[in-house]
Write a structure and sequence with these properties.
InterPro entries: P-loop_NTPase. This is G domain-containing protein. One of its GO terms (biological process) is immune response. By secondary structure, the chain is an alpha/beta fold. The protein has a domain of about 250 residues: P-loop containing nucleotide triphosphate hydrolases (Rossmann fold, 3-Layer(aba) Sandwich), CATH 3.40.50. A 6-stranded mixed sheet has the order 5-6-4-7-8-9, sandwiched between helices. Helix 2 runs parallel beside helix 8 and helix 3 crosses helix 8.
Length: about 350
């Protein structure tokens, strides 16, 4: 039976994860005569080489590459993604044509949930930019705020290509999780949003929890009012600097959300370009980056979530023009979310009639 979160007091959130340290043990070398450094390679006398008799006879030096440090980029992708115009068009068509399998629900509602400045509003604007064919800022985005720029529950219809009809997807923006009860959402209010009790445009206040006295409060929400999937947003560049209560808070939050029957959870790792120069230069390197892969593992540990639920994302920030690879990465993230939305309707909705929820 679902927990009655309305009887629970508001719970504030603290975030963090202790930074990890790494050490490097240099490779040991045998002790023949010290080599002479020439450019970026070692030049070693041919008398010390046993694998090239031809070079010995000629008396030519043999060059051996120098170890230059840790490998930062893999030769092949650790997830298979096609960075092509065809793949972009295919993903756009899939998102544009998506409709919930439940006939009583015209659009799937996905809640973006994460710390202040984790990139929730930027993700919404970036996804809509792909369909608009140009970079636009539909959701208001803060730039130098330490508190959440978004204060209300705002739902954004994702429109099809060139501003066509709405797709079957709505992305819901909400106040960011802060560092305490006076700066961020409470657990009670988050669960109220997921259950569908909170009206559109409601302004959150830690000292005024959502309840039956709230203006516009939805007493008996239908399936269409509910949240059908939660997407956690985590900033890759801040994984090791969040407040140390962050991990336990997210795990507690995920446990409560899981108790709401059938609400699946995924995660988006934002700002991956800020932790990997190769990815910043070319987004198609994201799945070759060891830095990104390592940070995804840290995000998984932080959220208590398998990395198979986590996808990297680069939002449009200072750019004025779209980039093919960035578009493919954003659309892949949306497609990932919709897979779990589908599971919600397949596993849950058929067991209910009249779309009424408890």
């Amino acid at each position: 039976m679902e927990k009655k979160s309305e009887d629970k007091p508001g719970v504030g959130f603290l975030f963090g994860l202790p930074s990890s340290s790494s050490s490097f043990v240099p490779l040991s070398n045998p002790s023949p005569p010290a080599p002479t450094l020439t450019s970026s390679r070692f030049t070693i006398s041919s008398q010390l080489q046993n694998d090239s008799t031809k070079e010995k006879k000629k008396g030519k030096p043999v060059e051996i590459p120098v170890f230059t440090g840790f490998q930062s980029k893999l030769e092949s992708q650790w997830r298979d993604v096609q960075w092509t115009e065809e793949q972009k068009k295919s993903l756009m068509k899939a998102v544009s044509s998506y409709r919930p399998s439940c006939k009583d629900v015209p659009q799937a509602r996905v809640l973006l949930l994460g710390p202040v400045r984790s990139g929730k509003s930027s993700f919404i604007s970036s996804v809509q930019s792909v369909f608009n064919g140009r970079v636009t800022n539909r959701a208001m985005v803060g730039s130098s705020f330490n508190t959440s720029f978004t204060k209300k529950l705002q739902s954004f219809n994702i429109r099809g290509q060139n501003g066509e009809d709405n797709t079957g997807l709505v992305l819901c923006d909400i106040m960011g999780l802060g560092d305490g009860e006076t700066t961020g959402l409470t657990l009670h209010d988050i669960l109220s949003v997921i259950k569908g009790h909170v009206p559109e445009g409601h302004k959150f206040s830690p000292d005024q929890p959502v309840g039956t006295e709230t203006a516009g409060y939805v007493k008996t929400p239908s399936l269409r009012d509910r949240i059908h999937c939660v997407a956690f947003m985590v900033d890759a560049s801040k994984i090791s600097s969040y407040h140390k209560g962050f991990g336990s808070t997210f795990k507690q939050l995920r446990e409560y959300i899981s108790e709401l029957v059938g609400v699946h959870q995924v995660a988006l790792l934002t700002h991956v370009d800020q932790i990997c120069p190769e990815t910043a230069r070319d987004v198609s390197n994201v799945y070759k980056s060891l830095s990104v892969r390592d940070t995804m593992n840290k995000a998984g540990a932080l959220l208590g979530m398998s990395t198979s639920y986590i996808v990297p994302v680069k939002n449009y920030a200072s750019e004025l023009d779209l980039d093919l690879n960035t578009d493919v990465l954003l659309l892949s993230a949306v497609d990932h979310i919709l897979q779990y939305v589908d599971i919600f309707f397949q596993d849950y909705a058929p067991r209910h009639t009249g779309s009424k929820m408890i």
